[in-house]
Design brief:
The protein has helices spanning about 5-30, 65, 120-125, 135-145, 160-170, 190-195, 235-250, 270-285, 295-300, 305-310, 320-335, and strands at about 35-40, 50, 55-60, 70-75, 75-80, 85-90, 90-95, 115-120, 150-155, 180-185, 200, 200-205, 205, 215, 255-260, 290-295. The model has no long low-confidence stretch (mean pLDDT about 85). The chain is globular and about 95 Å long. The chain has about 350 residues and is of the alpha/beta class. Strand 11 and strand 12 (about 200-205) form a beta hairpin. It is built from 11 helices and 16 strands. Helix 4 (about 135-145) packs across helix 11 (about 320-335) and helix 5 runs parallel beside helix 7 (about 235-250). The protein has 2 domains: about 5-50, no CATH class; about 55-335, SGNH hydrolase (Rossmann fold, 3-Layer(aba) Sandwich), CATH 3.40.50. The longest helix has 30 residues, at about 5-30.
C-alpha cells in the first residue's frame, strides 16, 4: 500500500472509530432507558429500530410515605414501571419486565399450563403487603402445592378503575393467552373511579356513555392544562357495559371470565350500600359469558371479620386478608370445575 493511502486510512479510522463508539454508547444508553426499541417488521421484513419519547414518571398523593411511583401512559393514564424494585410501607415491591407486580412469565403460555390473568386496583396490586403476600401469589403457590400447573398473573395497578382495566385487557392482557380472566371489582369505589377523568390527582381515560365512547385520550401529560370530565349517569350501568365488553373480548380469545365482587363490607350495615350491592349483582349476573363470584358473601359464610379485611394500610387487606381471599378464590375455582385435573 502506498504511503499516501496508509495516511488516508489512518485519518479515516481516527474519525470513524470515535464516531462509531459514540453512536454505540448513545444506543446503549437509549436502550437502557427503554427509549430505543426493536420492532418486529412482520411478514418476513427485517426488524427496525425506533426511538421513543423520554419516560414520564408520576407519583401518587402521599408518595413520600408509600414510595409508589408510576409511568405515564397516553392510553391508560398511568401504569406500573417495568423492571422496578422498591418498597411499599417497607415491604418488597417488585415489578417485572412486562409491568406486572409479579415474577417473570413468558408471553407465550407454556404447553400444559392453565393461565389466570387477574385485573384489579390496589387490592389486587397488593397495597401495603410484600410480593409473596399478595393473594395472586398465595393462590398460585397453593395450586402448585396441590400439583396443578397453574400460573396466576397479577395485572393489578394501584388506583385503576374498570375502564383502565378494560383498555389494558384489550391492548395487552389477552396477548398472554389466559384461560381465565378474573376481574376483581371493588364495589366501594370502582363505580366512582370510572365516573371521572381525574382520579388521585392524575388524568385518566373516560368512557363518556354506556356505548363506551372513549374520551380524554390521549391522556393529557402532567402539567398540560385539561379540564375534568365526568359521566353523569348511574356508574353501575357504565360498569356493566365495560364488563359486558370484557366478556366479549374473553370469548373471542377462548378465555372464561369471572367477576369477583368485594367491598360491600366498607358500607357496613348502611342501607344504600345494600342497594348498591344488589343492583350490581342484578346487572352483572345476566350478562352472557360472565360468571359471578360474591366474595363478600363468601367472607360472611366463613366468618371473616370486617376488622381483618380492613386491617391494612388505608383499609387495604393485610397479609391475613390476602390469604383469606386466596383461599376463597381457590375454593371457588376448584368447586366450579375451572381448573385442570
Amino acid at each position: 500500500m502506498r504511503r499516501e493511502s496508509k495516511v488516508l486510512l489512518v485519518r479515516a479510522l481516527a474519525v470513524a472509530v470515535p464516531t462509531i463508539l459514540g453512536l454505540l454508547a448513545i444506543g446503549i444508553l437509549l436502550f437502557r432507558q427503554d427509549r430505543l426499541t426493536i420492532e418486529d417488521g412482520g411478514d418476513g421484513a427485517l426488524p427496525s429500530l425506533r426511538i421513543q419519547e423520554p419516560r414520564i414518571y408520576l407519583e401518587e398523593p402521599g408518595h413520600e410515605l408509600t414510595g409508589h411511583r408510576y409511568l405515564y401512559d397516553e392510553t391508560l393514564g398511568w401504569r406500573n414501571i417495568p423492571n422496578w424494585s422498591a418498597t411499599t410501607y417497607d415491604r418488597t415491591l417488585t415489578i417485572n419486565s412486562r409491568g406486572l407486580r409479579d415474577r417473570e412469565y413468558p408471553l407465550a403460555k407454556p404447553e400444559g399450563v392453565f393461565r389466570i390473568l387477574v385485573l384489579g386496583d390496589s387490592f389486587t396490586w397488593g397495597y401495603g403487603v410484600s410480593d409473596e403476600e399478595v393473594f395472586t401469589e398465595r393462590l398460585e403457590k397453593a395450586l402448585a402445592t396441590a400439583g396443578r400447573s397453574v400460573e396466576v398473573l397479577n395485572a393489578g395497578v394501584s388506583g385503576w378503575g374498570t375502564d383502565q382495566e378494560l383498555l389494558y385487557l384489550e391492548r395487552e392482557g389477552l396477548q398472554s393467552s389466559p384461560d381465565l380472566v378474573v376481574l376483581a371489582f371493588f364495589l366501594y369505589n370502582d363505580p366512582d373511579n370510572i365516573r371521572h377523568s381525574v382520579q388521585y390527582g392524575l388524568q385518566k381515560p373516560l368512557f363518556a356513555d354506556t356505548n363506551l365512547t372513549l374520551v380524554n385520550v390521549p391522556v393529557p401529560k402532567p402539567g398540560v392544562a385539561a379540564g375534568a370530565r365526568q359521566f353523569d349517569g348511574n356508574p353501575l350501568n357504565l360498569a356493566a357495559a365495560m364488563i359486558a365488553r370484557m366478556a366479549i373480548r374473553c370469548r373471542e380469545h377462548n378465555a372464561r371470565f369471572l367477576v369477583m365482587k368485594f367491598g360491600a363490607y366498607m358500607f357496613y350495615e348502611d342501607q344504600p350500600g345494600d342497594l348498591v350491592d344488589r343492583k350490581f349483582r342484578e346487572l352483572i349476573e345476566p350478562l352472557p359469558g360472565v360468571e359471578y363470584f360474591d366474595l363478600d358473601a363468601e367472607f360472611r359464610k366463613l366468618g371473616v371479620s370486617v376488622g381483618k379485611l380492613k386491617a391494612g394500610h388505608s383499609s387495604h387487606w393485610d397479609a391475613e386478608g390476602h390469604q383469606a381471599v386466596a383461599d376463597a378464590l381457590g375454593r371457588r375455582l376448584g368447586e366450579g370445575g375451572w381448573l385442570p385435573e
